[in-house]
């Protein structure tokens, strides 16, 4: 299954790779897949998903948790690390979604993602009016 994602929001490389994995897992589940083998050229991603490494940032912690939950939908799930040189097809697909705004390419699904699947943490800070600008 090949697909490209067009993000309608700013995402770091880490977020984009996790979003692609989550979306791919959901699409495979929707297609009725029982066994899933996914590839990543990121050692960090593979180790975080396997539980060997821990994510530090709050938003990054939530992605492996979500993937762990999605894994239960399959009889087997494996994420393998591959060398970057062997990941040329994924690099092509990542650029394709940006280049082809509204075009359809035969055999490739372009999925628009309007917002991250992991909610952003927003903290409000309340300032007492007497504190602002006072020595």
TrEMBL record:
Residues 4-96 form the RNase H type-1 domain. InterPro entries: RNaseH-like_sf, RNaseH_domain, RNaseH_sf. It holds the Pfam family RVT_3. GO terms for molecular function: nucleic acid binding; RNA-DNA hybrid ribonuclease activity. This is RNase H type-1 domain-containing protein.
């Amino acid at each position: 299954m090949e697909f490209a994602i067009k993000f309608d929001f700013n995402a770091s490389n880490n977020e984009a790779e996790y979003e692609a994995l989550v979306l791919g897992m959901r699409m495979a589940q929707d297609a009725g897949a029982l066994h899933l083998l996914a590839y990543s050229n990121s050692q960090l991603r593979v180790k975080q998903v396997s539980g060997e490494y821990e994510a530090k940032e709050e938003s990054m912690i939530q992605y492996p948790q979500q993937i762990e939950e999605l894994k239960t939908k399959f009889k087997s799930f494996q994420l393998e690390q591959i060398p970057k040189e062997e990941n040329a097809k994924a690099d092509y697909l990542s650029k394709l979604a940006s280049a082809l705004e509204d075009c359809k390419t035969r055999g490739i699904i372009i999925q628009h993602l309007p917002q991250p699947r992991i909610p952003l943490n927003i903290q409000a800070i309340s300032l007492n009016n007497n504190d602002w600008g006072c020595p």
